[in-house]
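Input set for joint prediction.
Command: fold jointly, output tokens.
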Amino acid sequence: MFRPQIKVLDCTIRDGGLINKWQFSDELVRETYVACAAAGVDYVELGYKASPELYPAPEYGCWRFCRDEDVERVLAGVERTAKLSCMVDIGRVREEDIAPCAESPFDMIRVASYVKDIDKAIALADLCMERGYETTMNIMAVSTNLEKDIDEALEQLAQTKIPAVYVVDSYGSMYCEDITFLVKKYQEALPGKTIGVHCHNNRQLAFANTIQAIIDGANLLDASVYGIGRGAGNCCLELLLSFLKNPKFNLRPVLKLIQDYFIPLREEIEWGYLIPYAITGMLNEHPRMAIAMRKTPDADKYLEFYDKLTTPEVVE
Amino acid sequence: MFRPQIKVLDCTIRDGGLINKWQFSDELVRETYVACAAAGVDYVELGYKASPELYPAPEYGCWRFCRDEDVERVLAGVERTAKLSCMVDIGRVREEDIAPCAESPFDMIRVASYVKDIDKAIALADLCMERGYETTMNIMAVSTNLEKDIDEALEQLAQTKIPAVYVVDSYGSMYCEDITFLVKKYQEALPGKTIGVHCHNNRQLAFANTIQAIIDGANLLDASVYGIGRGAGNCCLELLLSFLKNPKFNLRPVLKLIQDYFIPLREEIEWGYLIPYAITGMLNEHPRMAIAMRKTPDADKYLEFYDKLTTPEVVE
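tokens >
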């Protein structure tokens, strides 16, 4: 039995690019799209749409910007059976970077926002919707918010036309019961809207938490190939597809993609279950300190890292 | 809040030894014990007690046999604040290998059995109990049994004095709902007995499933350092300790143990989330074919492996 409303979004290139500044070959991006489309994935997210002024071009690969022409180059001749998505951050994209949807290869723009920025985020989402895109709101880092502030943001979102709002476990700190709590809260506050889920894998709970969200009614599911993503990464697409019963999903193209592209890539860049990311997850902290220490000679000094993060400091 | 009945069993050496035929240095075994004891782990399982006639000694390390004198050598001078466990398989241990508990460093003997062998397993458990050991029954591979056969085994176990029975996800194929189903079944069939849980990590669900078992009432929890164990390995001890609220547990010694011993060990021997183990988990299969293919030049030919396991064969 399956729920036909369920849609899968692959965020491999977008979230994986946070590791290597989107320095992916065109070939890898194309093959990722092709494999995801063949696997029955509904949306493939290629990156962030950001203003080129903000990021020096040679340092950052083209999926930091998601220019429409880059899509046309990379996917030239490829059948577009999966929709294309990109993400935008408040303050990092100009109005003129967002062409009307009818002139763009992108179908969906997802707005990422902290609770505190929700007003700006709604304005940006309104712009995307006006230009004809499917739009979602991804509220980040809610594990660090007071409930009253989450509730207020949800009240505001309820008054918008944004059709889908995501529960995001930014720090990989949530248990299944937290997912249930939030999915139910979002559902009650946002009648008629689709609830999405985006989980990080710091504590090896991304897949379990995504399953729990499905059970609770979430219908828009993020995952990435072999779990690639900043820090510990995301829910593995291959695991998610093995769980979903919808006959349209097919695991085989993703297995081939992993063996041909992501095993070699994993030799070059790092993601997945590593103790420093587990520690930031346990402590409900942003992974930035773990990411930084993994680039030093102390990359495996876990105890020192844990002590640094847990030693009480004077807070005035 | 915590549940004082909860006990943690570390199976690092016993299950990890399935990878390398228990070729661990005395130092690693000693440091594992010391760190687990300091972390508040209740039981440390050092290996299998097996008849030396069955396994050639130079090929197999001493924890394939768990002779009492090996324990005394390795733990000489070490304070024994954690109890010692070993596992026995039916037909692989002789009566004379099991000394009276009062003369042995071991406190607990766990009997591993398939449902079909439960009568023999109960006889072996009775022997262990007669000799004074704490004893558990670990029923393996129940994900492949008909429910009526599980029920019959549980009925037989209900009539014994065996104080604890384990739900074991041998193939890493179970979801949280399967764990709930089995824990509740075991509880209902075995009033007054402790329920244990031992999960494998093929689909990155070992920690989530262990949490679910705790919620459902399991009080005897298996885990291993950095998840070491055959194939995909087990629930990570470091994750489990981060979840448990009992003040006696301490994560720090385990973090130090991982950085000093298990990161280097992982360079020598392989365990953890790898696609072939994910595939056997998805298919509810024993990991033996995945283990075998990982030792060949085709170790990363996932699609071929998947097709081999899923291509229908004529079954008469």
